[in-house]
């Protein structure tokens, strides 16, 4: 089959690789209908996350059609149109039993690679480094889905392929970020980043009862989309201080909760940006964490800081601000299995349309160009859909 593979830092190619096969009686093989670029992929494409090997198929956000099932798969049927969360769950361990699916104790076969870094292993994830399981990813014509009955969600007829695609990762990640905020009716929530996850976090905050949502970014097309989803906007490149702007917008108190949806390759302005870029380029730090620091600084006293961005070893993390302002910090990789069924209801009610994230639609053989456009944010790119 054809697949988009990682061959080295900023070295991608579409190549022919082996088709996946059933390895476990609980496995399912899915013919990928749609898969999409994701900002998390940029971290290992740019060489900031270790653990990729030449020839690895990557990609973790996808939907498709079931074409083969293992002998012990009972609920998922051949021919079903399904969406699959990016993190792989077993639904049998303590963590899955507590709806902490991205922490599954069963699905990472490379646990020994994570323990020195994290202390204990997380769940496996498709196409996202060998410490996270070494699974082949979704930028391919076919993909093996372990524990098919747990991880394949049948898509209702009223949900389009394009809507279902982002329920694999961007929507549950953004929704979880809003869920972490413990929103009370009328709260003000500020969201750093108006990429796909930030936009879904903004929309989710409103769905959870926020009175106001303020999206912060520098790209006009992304801020325009945030406005379409119901958010107010701040273009941080056009003002002197985001903190001051948020203070003015909230009567001097600051947002009740903040959501950081940027991650380790964040952008800022001034001396902070020069400092972070220089240290990251020299591999003296893994993260450009200006948006995270800014979010913590801007949050009101006693508020919630919800972190969705992927980070490594963050330099100059403002722990003193968290302590002295009595802030609650919440973060996780997304527990998609917990949230996906309710997204179907939101679509049915007209409250959510994830397909709004799509700016480009390309065949898989143009995957290298897709990631170049996505990484460099050219041509107004927010998300590229790839069709194997």
TrEMBL record:
A Pfam family this chain is assigned to: ADH_N
Sorted UniProt keywords: Metal-binding, Oxidoreductase, Zinc
CDD domains with a match to the protein in the record: FDH_like_1
Keyword Oxidoreductase included in the entry's annotation: yes
UniProt domain Alcohol dehydrogenase-like C-terminal: residue ranges: 196-265
Entry-linked InterPro entries: ADH-like_C, ADH-like_N, ADH_Zn_CS, GroES-like_sf, NAD(P)-bd_dom_sf
Source species, domain of life: Bacteria
Molecular function per GO: oxidoreductase activity; zinc ion binding
Keyword Oxidoreductase applies: yes
Annotated ranges, domain Alcohol dehydrogenase-like N-terminal: 25-156
Cofactor: Zn(2+)
Family to which this protein belongs: Belongs to the zinc-containing alcohol dehydrogenase family.
Protein name from the UniProt record: Alcohol dehydrogenase
